């Protein structure tokens, strides 16, 4: 068994923690619908051609952790779809810092692996925690790219919303994205070249 995928593929590392560098995506595929990864296998193509469907991982981590465990197993399935957003492993303020950095690393390793080995269009997903995370949470991210974010899960806490907005503004400054795809339930006003996508959770069997 590969040790944390390190023996499978090694990438150019960025920053103190050697975060794999991902490639910029400068052209948006023609996506007509977005679904979560856990729904991919059961997705019926009678209404939408899979090549017009985008896959995201803004769902509980256990539903897409299998990508990390067996990245090659699911590559062929993902290739049927128009694009994918980089897997969004969780980072929280009450997590140990080491665990959040590890999840940032995993997101980047999978994004870079699918981009470079399988030539899948994987749009970088950007995440942060608070201002203390800015020293590493943008490591490996491309400048001038289409990127994805989500404010799902913030709830009604004003402090969480402000932390998210501060990180969002910092992302605009550091990465200067050409488009920001925001999966959201609440269509609040954010600056920048933003495109809002309604987040919805589909009911269906888990993939195996």
Radius of gyration: 16 Å
Estimate percent helicity. Answer: 10-25%
Q: Strand tally, please?
A: 9
Number of domains: 1
Q: How would you explain this protein's 3D organization?
A:
The protein has 208 residues and is α/β, with parallel strands linked by helices. It has one domain (13-198). It is built from 4 helices and 9 strands. The strands form 3 sheets. A 4-stranded parallel β-sheet has the order 3-4-5-6. The longest helix has 20 residues, at 97-116. It starts with 12 loop residues before the first strand and ends in a 10-residue tail after the last strand. 35% of the residues are buried. The model is unreliable at 204-208 (pLDDT under 50).
Layout of helices and strands, plus pairs?
Layout: E1 13-14, E2 19-20, E3 33-36, E4 53-56, H1 65-69, H2 71-78, E5 83-85, H3 97-116, E6 122-123, E7 146-150, H4 158-175, E8 179-184, E9 194-198
Parallel strand pairs: 3-4, 4-5, 5-6, 7-8, 8-9
Antiparallel strand pairs: 1-2
Summarize the structure.
This protein has 208 residues and is of the alpha/beta class.
Which descriptors apply to this entry?
208 residues, four-stranded parallel sheet, three-stranded parallel sheet, disordered C terminus
């Amino acid at each position: 068994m590969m040790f944390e995928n390190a023996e499978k593929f090694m990438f150019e590392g960025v920053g103190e923690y050697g975060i794999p560098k991902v490639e910029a995506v400068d052209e948006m595929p023609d996506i007509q619908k977005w679904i979560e990864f856990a729904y991919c296998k059961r997705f019926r193509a009678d209404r939408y051609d899979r090549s017009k469907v985008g896959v995201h991982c803004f769902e509980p981590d256990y539903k897409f952790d299998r990508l990390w465990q067996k990245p090659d197993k699911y590559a062929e399935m993902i290739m049927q779809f128009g694009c994918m957003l980089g897997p969004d492993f969780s980072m929280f303020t009450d997590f140990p810092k080491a665990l959040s950095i590890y999840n940032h690393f995993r997101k980047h390793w999978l994004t870079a692996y699918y981009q470079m080995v399988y030539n899948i269009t994987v749009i970088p997903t950007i995440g942060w925690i608070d201002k203390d995370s800015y020293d590493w949470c943008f490591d490996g991210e491309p400048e001038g790219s289409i990127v994805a974010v989500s404010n799902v899960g913030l709830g009604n806490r004003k402090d969480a919303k402000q932390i998210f907005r501060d990180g969002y503004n910092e992302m605009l400054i550091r990465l200067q994205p050409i488009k920001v795809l925001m999966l959201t339930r609440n269509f609040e006003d954010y600056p920048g070249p933003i495109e809002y996508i309604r987040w919805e959770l589909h009911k269906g069997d888990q993939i195996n």
